[in-house]
Amino acid sequence: MAAKKVKLAKNLILSVTAQVISLIVSFVLGFIVPKFIDEYQYSYWQTYVLYVGYVGVLHFGLLDGIVLRYSQYDYDELEKNRIRSQFQILLAFTSILSALTCGISCIFLESTSLWIVILVSVGIITKNIFTYTSYSFQITNRIHKYAFLVIAQRAAYAVVVVILLALKVNDFYWYCIAELFGDICAIFIGAFLNRGLYFGKALPIKEAFKESWINVSAGLFLMIANLSSALIVGAAKMIIQWRWDELVFGKIAFSFSVSNLFLTFVTAISVVLFPSMKRMDQSELPDLYDKIRQIISPILFVSLLFYFPVCKILNLWLPKYNASLPYLGILLPIIIFSSKVSLLTNNYLKAYRKEKQMLLINLLSIALGIVLFSVFAFAASNLELVLYSVVLVVVVRSVVSEVYAMKLIGKLNKKSILDFAVEIVMTAIFIASARMAGLLYGALIYLGAAVVYLIIYRKSLVAIFKKIAAKFRRGNEN
Q: Which listed residue, of 27, 143, 214, 410, carries a Cα 20 to 30 Å from 384's Cα?
């Protein structure tokens, strides 16, 4: 048991280290690039980023099925010819799909739209193969290699972007190519480190397709659940892009990109947790849920205080995006509820094999979102109401998911209901202070609310940190 916990801690540190690198790259992309390219080019670049973010579903659940079926195995225990056959099918399918997309776009599109679609079609191959590569390390709990892969991908991307900035390149498509280059570099590195899952004999074709069908059947619900989860925010961005012009979309995309920086760390922790949870006895999972929740909620709410100094800095650094900052004040709380879904409910529902329930919750959320986004965008023509509805839908999805997960593990009680109410009140206070008060008064108002929040939960926080300190002391003694 102690060895498992030490390995979990090491994996967590390695993964977070990789995501620190990723955060630095995201910082360059989010705050440096917009300074040196014009607003239209930035908007086109963000359009590519929006749509390429969804090509990862074009494996139709095959990779999610591999994760669900093989996460409990170590690398040496895998039937490598079985996994290799899935790689070959994935590569062939995405290549055909990419070629068809390119061919059709060349017939019907031109200029900027053609560029965007061609680059996205290349991403169909690179994003899915990169996902295969990263999943192969995650499911076998080789987090140190996964961390190296992430660092390589982000570093290659960053180096090319820095060169482009140094050369004063303004055209958006070069920055898209830089990202694809990073993916390709990581794929080659992953293939070298993971040769057993790339090269060698595979299953016969008939058996390989049978295996693919099993994987797709197992992973389809999870893939659709993940897609619908991403679409809660993505649908809002798409509707904004369709309803308003490029400059408005660019301002909103900037606000979303800043809020997404924080989620980088959450992704890192989630990557470590799921394979580790698959290896844990289910009787241990309920207590782990409480510990994770009691730690992350205060950290997330206190972290919102950074909004106020960051806004001051952005006002000076990127004055042409000043209009984005009020939107950021509305959107930032989504990181709290998206983080809890990513860290807690999704991992727990996957561990208990409740993908269908995940899917249902996410589909209902996206249906609610599309209705609200469409009404506020096309009928009311009110951009702020669209953004408020994004926050509302994310909060509803998070609370419903947590209620279901807590009932599943026997942790739903009056205290948890009170916690939800407190978190919603804190969210409302933050949005009100960020949106309606100035930076100074807003910071003071939310600081006061954060202090009260910490006082309310001081006993549970002190107890958690005492347990952590005790474990560190025992570890040092050993």
A: 27
Predicted TM-score of the model (pTM): 0.83
Structural contact between residues 360 and 417, judged by C-beta atoms closer than 8 angstroms = no
| Residue in 138, 6, 5, 133 with CA at minimum distance from that of residue 73 | 138
Give the tokens for residue 287: 């207590």
Distance CA 202, CA 87 (A): 9
186 contacts 149 by C-beta, under 8 angstroms: yes
Q: Do residues 52 and 174 make contact, with C-beta atoms less than 8 angstroms apart?
A: no
Task: Tell me the residue type at 372.
Answer: L
Task: Identify the burial level of 410 via C-beta atoms within 10 angstroms of its C-beta, where 0-12 means exposed, 13-18 middle and 19 or more buried.
Answer: exposed
Note the pLDDT tens digit of each residue in 345-373: 877 777 777 777 888 888 899 999 999 99
CB atoms within 10 A of CB 377: 20
* C-alpha to C-alpha distances, 120 to 176, 294, 411, nearest whole angstrom: 9, 40, 43
Residue given tokens 């100035």 in the structure block: 438
Instruction: Dump the DSSP string for 60-128.
Output: TTHHHHHHHHHTTS-GGGS-HHHHHHHHHHHHHHHHHHHHHHHHHHHHH--HHHHHHHHHHHHHHHHHH
For the packed helices 111-139 and 172-193, what is the interaxial angle rounded to 10 degrees? 20
User: 138, 154, 149, 55: which is closest to 95 by C-alpha?
Assistant: 55
